[in-house]
Structures are given as C-alpha cells and as structure tokens.
Amino acid sequence: MERTIYLTPFKFNYPFSLNITPKKNTYFTNPFLCVSLYAMTSQPVLVSVVIPCYNQADYLRETVQSVLKSTYDPIELIIVNDGSTDHSLQIAKELASQFPEITVLNQKNAGVAVARNHGIQQANGQFILPLDGDDLISNRYIEKAVEVLQSNSSVKVVYAKAVKFDSSGTQAWNLKAFSRYALAKDNMIYVAALFRKKDWEACGGFSEDMTMGREDWEFWIKMLKNEGEVVQLPFVGFFYRLTPNSKRKRTGTSQKKKERIAYLNRKHIDFFNRELSGPLRIQRTWSKPYNKLLKILRLLIK
After folding, report:
1. CATH architecture of 4-245
2. pLDDT tens-digit profile of 129-146?
3. What is the C-alpha to C-alpha distance for residues 163 and 190, in angstroms, rounded to an integer?
C-alpha cells in the first residue's frame, strides 16, 4: 500500500534557519511510522550531495553554502561541471580548495541526467541528495531526512515542503500527495530528495536518453512503481530558483510534452496499464477515465 507520510509540523525561517522544538523522546507521525529523535546511536552515515552544474556560475556558491550550513555531518559534495562555457568550473575549483568535503568532476556537456549519474557513481555516501547548481536547501533538511531513512527501511524517498523563489521574493509550491496512481499522472517529488544509493543502482539511475525534460519524474517512476514508501517532511526544506532560461521552461512546449509522454509509455506501459488502465494520455488527468471508456466502447463494438 502506497502513501505519503507527513511528519509533525516544524517552524522555519527562509531561507536556511529552522526553529525546531520537538518533544524530548519520540514523536509519532501516523500509525505507520515512528521516528525517534534521540535514538540515533549508530555511527552517522555519509550523505553525498551531487550538484550538476551547467553555466550556473552566478548561483553555484550560494547553492554550495546552503549545503555547508547543514546541521548534518558527515557530508561530501560532488560538483559535476557539465561542460559549462562560463566560469562555473573555476568557481567549483575555488570552492574545492576552500572546503575539503568538496570534489569537482569535469565532463563534456552531456546533459543533466548524465552529470547526475556521473556524480552518484563516484559518490561514497550511502544516501544521495541530487541538488541542481542554482537551488538551495535548508540547514535541517538533510538531518531530518536521514533520520527517517534510518528509522524505516521501507521508506525509499524523503523530501520536504518547498517554495519557488527569484529576486522578487518567494511563492508557495503546492506539491501533491504521493501515491502511485498520482505519480502515473504527474510528478510531485522534485529531484532534490534523499534516497539510498543502492536504490539508484537497482533502478538503473537517471535515464540518459530522456532529453525532453522531466527526467526526475521518470526516475521516481522507475524507483517507486512497484514498492517503497515516500515521506514528505513538514517544513520547507527546498528552495527552487526560478530563472528565465530554465530547462523546465525550455522543455515546456507541447511538442516536448508529446515526446515525453510517448517516451514514458514506451518505458513504463506496465505501470500505466496498472494505474491508469492504459497508456498515459496528453490530457494526463483524464487518462484513466478515457482508457476505461475506450475499453467499454471496444466491448460494445465487438
């Protein structure tokens, strides 16, 4: 049975500081999950933050600083320069010279999926956090996500509430609750979620041939379509930067949408047949009713 698990509320102050005042011993989220705040007696596991970067020199330092302010330790940061033509590589090397936890990988431009896979392949951590080179995280995000992953082996993915921001301010990002049925119609988990490296390996990583955008959606389908719970933390832990030339805008055309849906149906028709009674349609919300109607009409025609 799939479900999104919501933890008890936290207060936050944008963009990094979180004021957390839980009860001393244990808090309960719902009947399915209990997270002990003070039972983390085992050796802390390494978290690898993988930052693909393509021409994000203006934002890379801020992104890295948001990770370095994390309350969790140990962390390694792997910056993957994806053939940037600005001075992103120079900034990445400068940051690596200042902070020993940073490693820089340099590759020819091959796309964000290739860059993420490259970084994750080189990562030493048990837990992975992909973070694009212009986005930010809050200081408690990694700590609280690791607590959940260590407390419940059935949880595959942990993310948090999120906001979108630019120079004019912030705006709410209303993320839908996770279910496999909902995931079949749309993505509600941004790429900067925490998961185990072994689950990345098991599902084959990010699909490098998916060049029409939303490769994170297809990645979550691969990882979650058959099993695994998803937890959304109850505070804003992720800050998505709105930029004029973002990939999301470049791949938001109707043609790219058609290509994307065709790709998803080729790769995951078994998943869509199960959840939507047929393929994903251009009008995604109506996929299941449309598919069921077609089946009825075919029966009537016979």
Report:
1. Alpha-Beta Complex (3.90)
2. 999 999 999 999 999 999
3. 11
